[in-house]
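During the second half of the funding period, the structural biology subgroup turned its attention to how the target accommodates small molecules. The most pressing case was 6-O-phosphono-beta-D-glucopyranose, which had performed well in the primary screen but for which no bound structure existed. We therefore specified the complex as follows and requested a full 3D prediction, including the ligand pose.
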Amino acid sequence: MYWEELFCMETAPMPGAVVIFGATGDLAARKLFPALQSLHDRKLLNEDSVIIACGRRHYDDETFRSMLGCSADFARHICYCCGDNDSDDTYLQLKNMLSDADRRAADKNLPVFNHLFYLALGAEDMLAVCRKLALHGLLKENPASGSWIHTVFEKPFGCDLASARCLNDQLHNCMDERQIYRIDHYLGKETVQNILMLRFANLIFEPLWRAEYIDHVEITATETLGVERRGNYYDRAGALRDMFQNHMLQLLCLCAMEVPSSFDADDVCNEKVKLLRAIRPFDLNSLSSEIVRGQYISYRQEKDVAADSLTETFVAAKLYIDNWRWRNVPFYLRSGKALAHKKSEIAITFKSIPHSIFPDIAPGDLAGNVLVINIYPGEGISLTLQAKKPGPKLCIGRMRLDFDYSTLGKNSGDDAYERLLLDALSGDPALFIRNDFIEESWKLLTPVLEQWQLDPSDLEFYPVGAEGPEAAAKLIAPNFWRSLEPDEN
Ligand code: BG6
């Protein structure tokens, strides 16, 4: 595989304290500590960094470290802060630990020593923790020091427009928007990041990236797993809130937004928000011709799911973007659980040629080229082309140019959380979500949620392992969804 390094934008990790709330929880064990260990192994965690793990269970530093099962060299960065999230004593203890870390950094003459709070907590607890942090002065930056204090949040960022606005307002009472890092783990995925490079570091796509040449776009994120142990959260959320409001709309924006004036986080976000504002609102009078929902048949038997639940585990939508570039180009988005295959991709289908010079072949016989940005499985990019079959006869066929990320030596340990943590540690907000993105996305989806609640009659049940409910096939007609089979199309 040909690869020539041109430029590397990576910044050196800065020293600081990472405070993890919910350190004994699932997310911390599965994602955060492994990602931090991996950053440490790659020398991307600053040697002077301190990780403070906050949890309710009674551990001392040694027990907690050995429970994590991480390497001794990484473990020496970690200490444990035991206490309830709602008790002031916890924050006093934390304040002492942070002051000690700051003092050690000052003794070493480190130019800066930042504080990053990571709230790996349920939605109910996040705001309460923020308020306590603010109350104890732990979110107040000292501009003279040159160090920053940032806080990382996991979704959900509200459950509709009103709650998202209210959450944003309350967070802004505790800290500036600049200090808030909202995570969407899709933005840390390798190929998702590559969409911007593909579109804006190459000239060949931009002239074609518009209604004149593109027939339709499909964005897919399907899973084979059901709700597993998350019934409690999921049954209140559903696929529209869980996948569409965040991941699916982020993918849509990266794929369809205009060229930002720079790679600066705000410039990129401005373009995303402009794009969201240009999405045609759903027509509530003919909603099922624009967005459909399904529930997998055994969903109601899942743990912590209501026996008469009307929560959707699948959504497919047809969107139009009312601007010059995308006039009348349908964007089809689908996401669901308990489906035939796990697949995440963006597929851009170009129009067919306007006239065929080949005997007995009509222009429509030659399907439009398809550019696929594969996110899972097998990160990469592929382009289907029409080509001549080798040999004396004139036979035309389809072939595919494939670029597979793994051929560039992608480390199998790479993980979206690793990337996002590194950026958070470096104070780079580019891959995090701004409040106006959240509010615009809810503006689009809240009317649908309200309408669905009023009239649940369109909820369709689909078998586990299917490609989705039948309504999804009708939604995309006369086109067809691409197969979920790993290497099809
Ligand atoms: C999460 C959702 O944000 O994304 C989950 O809450 C979903 O329900 C997951 O399973 C999918 O992520 P990925 O990276 O496996 O596509």
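Two results from this model are relevant to the next phase. The chain has a mean pLDDT of 94. The first helix runs from residue 26 to 41.
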